[in-house]
Amino acid sequence: MTQESDVAERELDVDAPLAATEPNPTEMNPTEPNPTGGRLVLVGTPIGNLGDASPRMRQTIEAADVIAAEDTRRFLSLAQRLGLRHTNRVMSVFDHNESYRAPELVELIAAGQTVVLLSDAGMPAVSDPGYRVVKACAEAGLAITSTPGPSAVLMALAVSGLPSDRFSFEGFLPRKSGQRKRLLEELKAEKRTMVFFESPHRIADAMDDFAEVIGADRPMSISRELTKTYEETLRGTVGSLREAAAAGLRGELTLVLAGATEVESAPEDHLGEVSALVDSGVRAKDAAGQVAKRFGLSKREVYEAWLHRE
User: Within the chain, which residue ranges are assigned CATH 3.30.950.10?
Assistant: First the structure.
């Protein structure tokens, strides 16, 4: 499918029959239409296993006035497989149209409608469309809530066996090796556990860059096909998982990388990095500042050490 045809498909607004839903008289559902106004509800959808579709997810979708889906056809397929009765309006909100869809959704919510926003899988606005809509609704002072659901980020982190008390989500790795290496250089000294997404078509090249920049001994895990039939998590080091990636990995991949260990270092230990930046055209003070920030050192001390290097 070409990018043009994919965009055309996603822009389709779909009409589906409206079915009445029975409210639960014994429980107040916070995602039902607010009598004082509309609201935006971010809905997490299954990342693979349909059994992860919660009753609340179903109720929220069925009670909505408008469904804003990353891909309308995928949503309709999901609704059919789950037997969902949903609103008569389904509209597309994806990367290429989110900016101009956001004001339209704000108007609908301000008029008292409940809009459900969902992506193809997992939580919207987390490496998926949704951020611009949320931002626009927040700026307009509208109610925003969520019906949380499955997350590849949290699941991969939880099963990785790596520290999970502090972590950062870095999204998809850059496609080009040079950009990947620059990103990894920035994250090399990060002490928190890091989570990345990567395509099976680029995983081998990405692991080469991890080995070159991060080093082969850093603990790491690669999870694939989470919640699906062939779910698998490989645990080891960058070096050992590089070999597995070279042999080929299929499915959607989530990488979890251990943070850098606490290593005492002095400004003199990093003069090579400063010199390399200076040689590339960066001012000495700026180069010293970049290196100091990366390794948690004093900018003044790094700069002084570089000035008085032998």
Answer: 153-257
Task: Give whole-number Cα distances, 152 to 25, 48, 129, 171, 274, in Å.
Answer: 34, 10, 16, 11, 38
What CA–CA distances, in Å, run from 85 to 51, 61, 63, 203, 266?
A: 17, 8, 9, 39, 63
pLDDT of the residue at 264: 62
Taking CA atoms, 105 is separated from 63, 67, 87, 242, 248, in Å, by: 17, 10, 15, 45, 42
pLDDT at 263: 62
Regarding the domain with residue range 153-257, which homologous superfamily does it belong to in the CATH classification?
Tetrapyrrole methylase, C-terminal domain (3.30.950.10)
The pLDDT assigned to 181 comes to: 95
Alpha helices in 34-114 (DSSP H): 55-63, 72-82, 98-110
Residue numbers of the chain with a pLDDT score lower than 70: 1-36, 262-264, 310
Span(s) in the chain for CATH 3.40.1010.10: 3-150
Q: 216-236 burial, b if ≥16 CB within 10 A, otherwise e?
A: eebbbbbbbbbbeeeeebebe
Model pLDDT, residue 78: 94
The DSSP code for 273 is H
Task: Give the class (CATH, top level) of 3-150.
Answer: alpha beta
> Cβ contacts of residue 122 below 8 Å, gap of 6+?
44, 45, 47, 128, 149, 150, 151, 152, 153
pLDDT at site 49: 93
Beta-sheet strand order (sheet of 39-43): 14-15, 89-92, 66-69, 114-118, 39-43, 143-147
